[in-house]
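Recall that a protein's primary structure is simply its ordered list of amino acids. Everything else, from secondary elements to tertiary packing, is in principle encoded there. The following example makes that idea concrete.
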Amino acid sequence: MTGQLLAPAPTTAPEPAGVSGVARGGLANLAGAALAGVAGVGVTWLVARGLGPDSAGSFFAATSAFVLVGGVARLGTSTALVYWPARLRAQGRPELIGACLRAGLVPVAVLGTILAAGVWLTAAHFVPEYAAPLSALAVFMPLAALTDALLAATRGYREMRPTVLLDKILRPAMQLCGVGALAVLAVSGGAVLSTSTWALAWVLPYAPVVLLAAYLVWRRWQREPLLDRRERLAARIEGRSVTSAFWRYTAPRALANSAQTALQRVDVLMVAGLAGLAPAAAYAVAGRFIVLGQLANGSIAQAVQPRLAETLSVGDRAGAKRLYQTATAWLVLICWPLHLLVWDYADVYLSVFGGSYVSAAPAVRVLAVAMLIGTGCGMVDMVLSMAGRTTWNLANVLLALAVMVAIDLYTIPRLGVLGAAYGLAAAVAVNNLVPLAQLAGALGLHPFGGATRTAMGLALASFGLLPWLARLALPATALGTGATLALATGVYVGGLRTFRDRLGLAALLKAARPTTTPGKRRGQPTR
């Protein structure tokens, strides 16, 4: 592609990126992520309680396969449909956005339909243990893939609200209500509901969400300026160049995103295949807390990403380091208390889902340590991508996936759920420590600034050291546990107040206050 579409980035430095902008962009995402995380844990609890271990394992394996295949169907467009509409609008070429949307959405719909048909036709042959719920889910695979792609397109228009409202609030809430209604029906009426019915209650919300997302994209695209006949012809010709450039950019990310999705989901399928459905249910329950950390990571990363790209594009490594370290400190403040508490009270955490899952406590502790490492490195893979090292990022994800599969194949038949935890922990270590070393060596970037070290020390002291000391002094009762948690929380909150400036919390507090900016209309997007 030539001309304006490949115009070089401006050489003048943008306005210095501050943490206040990241705070404004991340707060809504974090709030939505918190609601989505609570809804996800609620669905897991209802399924674990409402179904026996084998049936719950069938449900979790089917939904994991659904997410895995849907990740392949997206073809990496979740990034490209943000990048290209934003780039075309910034370059004054909005008439080409239609070609960009067609280039991304049509292949996703076609591949999603093909993969759905393949799964529906072959599930009974390849995965008979959970073929029934997976076949029910397969019908909705194109809708799920299109939902992610369409919401990415809204973000390309710099509109975060649809992602928060539809993907992080509406869909999880509808899933929770649907699965909850089945649980109430099963308990009150004594009805025996198939796993396929539970799977349908979980997947049906994708239908209204994809329709709403499609409408929002169509409405936003309709606001673009009208073209005369000659301009439409020129846009059609250049649209072919857009399509070519779109897929040159997207193809490597399609493989990387598929590998990243596999890294998050394939272990549940391997446990189901190598150890059985009941262990798969225990492993899915054991790792449910990980999703909360992933949601927080993704929410902060979405806010940091554009500003980090700006600073790196003009060579402002000091600004990039400041953003990376502050964002990592916030991530540690959010995630480390959760991971440390799960490590401290793994048996209590698992008992909430049912007594049959408590035996997975050693696996929970292994996963908690892995998540401390992962969140302590921050959104390191995203920083590597924004620095232009996408090939390195792809190689790192593939290496981590290979390590996990190799370890799982050896350990799951011998150790069951614990073996899968070892495999995922090793993959998390590879997928974070390797790019961390690459960033430090190539760009001199690392997340361990004063804010990050303070956040780590505060979390470890409050939710690591204090619970350990309390266990030595207080009885292992509900009252003793409650007193310990109250003390740890009090120390943590006191530390946040004491070190709020060093942790960059002033920006978060400022962003949380409602403000009005002169000259801007209500609802106008901000940088």
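Residues 1-17, 515-527 have pLDDT under 50 and may be disordered. Residues 287-514 form one domain.
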